Amino acid sequence: MKVLAIILSVLTGILAGDYNAQTLSVEEQDSILGVQPTGRYRLVKENEQQIFRHSSVADWFIEDTMRHTRKRLGEGMFKGEEVQVRDAVMSPNGRYVAFAKDNNLYIHKLDFGTEVAVTKEENTDIISGIADWLYEEEFGTTTLFAWSPDSKMLAFVQLDESEVPTFSWDVYADGQYPTTESLRYPKAGCQNAKASVCVYDVATKGINRLVISDDRLGDVYFPRLRWTDENTLMVLRVNRDQTKMEVFDCNAKSTVSHLWYREESKKYFVDYSLFDQWQWLSDGRVVILSEKDGWRRAYLYNAQGTELKALTPENIDVTAVYGVNEKSQTLYYQAAPTPATRQIYAVNSKKGEITQLTQEEGMWSARFDQEATKAVFCYQSFEVPNTYYLYSKNKLELIQDNKEVQEAWQANGLPEPQLLNINGLEAMLIKPSGFSNQPAALVVMHYSGPSSQRVLNRWRKRFEYALVEQGYAVLIVDTRGSDCKGRAWRNETYMSLGQKEAEDLIAAANEIAKRPDIDGERMAIMGWSYGGYETLFTMSQKNHPFKAAVAIAPVTDWKLYDSAYTERYMRRPQVNPRGYEEASLLNKAKYLTGNVLIIHGTADDNVHVQHTMQYIHALVEADKQFEMQLYPDDNHFLRKGNNATHMHNRILNFLQNNLKQ
Q1: pTM
Q2: Mean pLDDT of the chain
Q3: Is residue 125 within 8 Å of 162, Cβ to Cβ?
Q4: Cys bridge to 51: 55, 86, 254, 557, which one at CB 3.0-4.6 A?
């Protein structure tokens, strides 16, 4: 159990959710979140308390480094309160700080130490400048406001949640009676928040709503705002089915907008997140990232929104755009030459010459300076933890390695993964070292959600190694729909989640069971969130080879999950009823075979425990036996108190009981 103790002490559990191949390491953040250009004032955050996955409230302070004083942000508006606020952003000129408290926006004026309200909505269903639960979870943001470059205007998204249904759950921890918590949670096909984009003028204190053509409130999302000059705001709009992505060039003063870019598909969803990689050049040209031609490629557009040329080749997915050195006309980017690896490249936008800057097999990432002249490169692989280099003048200079971490891990004597390709599926196998001549029991671990990846040549030491230490072989598989194999592969499961992924997991397990070192009679499968859903789906197939399964926080019916995620891959139930019916586990409970452990937190705001409860009802009606573990008042990640340790020990005990010889 030595390895399990090490892993739990560092991780407090397996991460649930989509595994982003571009996120290579845990980045430490300083508490200083903003510094005035003169250096006099600093914006500092303390005592942060998490709300949901990304959001938090905290004590924010303005520190005056000249007078050695600090002032709590918000106390000018809320005298006598221990004010905790949400997102706070200093203006480019360093004279203002915009911040959110509850559902309204405010501005702190550093010159005078005073504060004014940008919005004054008493209706708590009207949210200004910050994300509701849906935007936070599915569009990966909490901040929906942005300063203009001259600090004269503040753009923000306003959301009206008044028609969004409410989901509530009981809290059991203390007291004679349980209490209740709730949130506005739009499920597939239900009413979303109505969204609009507004601009606040600091001088006049007036608010204008931007006029964006064909704007049907409630049927669109505005997940990103970006100023390109003092008066021009680029607004990203995505239709509800997420089959169309539009970028509007908006005049913040006249409120008039025109369509600058449109990407639409009748066969696939359009990936809004690629907008985050776009690079605006000083002459108005834009480097955009798009998968419109079947692969994620970088293109150069002129200031009017007309494509000039493709900058990166076909048949390789670009996974990050780092910046453009305008003097040398060089674009720096990350791409996946194979699905499990990442390399860094440079392309001369004038000549079209591409140079691969990194060579070692594994995962390379980078952070460039604003002019894209220097960067810090990070490298990692199965054998090598994060190692940092300074990139300058086409040379790499070692900054820091992690030899101590590497040597400490190697002292455990555990094997590294072996990359495999099983019938076209990317996979990796970790076999226990020093095991006897008896074939090892196998645990298949997976996520299987659209555009996700877990088979990556990176330094990742998690619960799979606790299993390996106990003598299990672990197979990690990326099914159809996974990332970095082109757009068509990513959309293999579009409109019909569940079935193809199950077929792939079964095929991979059957193939690996042919090996003499794997015991095909002792195999289990486990997954979390989408992986939990797909685990139960697989156990409901008549030809599956698994004796046991662990499903953690599983989706069981997509009509119960949130609108933005579900409709991205399934569209709405009203237009795809057959797809939803065939993807539901509730009508597959009668086909479940094998020993199953279902785990869920009762305060899961993401995949509600309602999923598990409805599935349990279906299992009981079908007279199917199962094991169950609930964690009171914990959320999707099950890290509260001793829950992570308890859960992992429960899983080990379950596997031991069901896979023993």
Answers
A1: 0.93
A2: 92
A3: yes
A4: 55
